[in-house]
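CO-FOLDING WORKSHEET

Operator: S.A.
Ligand of interest: zinc ion
Run index: 67
Mode: holo prediction, single chain
Checklist:
[x] sequence pasted
[x] SMILES validated
[ ] output reviewed
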Amino acid sequence: MEWIIGIVVLWFIFSFFKPTRCDVCSNRFKRKYYTWKIEGKKQHLCPSCNSKMSNRVSAKKFKDRFG
Ligand SMILES: [Zn+2]
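OUTPUT RECEIVED:
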């Protein structure tokens, strides 16, 4: 029986440390979130902010490369 308690305790610890809100728009995550390293800080982004960020990053890379 002890292993069930162990799993429950582990699950509590995981859900406690799991990010629940987007660091950019502070929307709640439904299921999926993305981890970005922005300005040396770890950020958790929702899917819509993730696509915005990847657009920005690729636009910046294009600019760096082609002016
Ligand atoms: Zn967001």
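REVIEW:
The first strand starts at residue 34 and ends at 38.
The chain has one domain: 21-67.
[x] output reviewed
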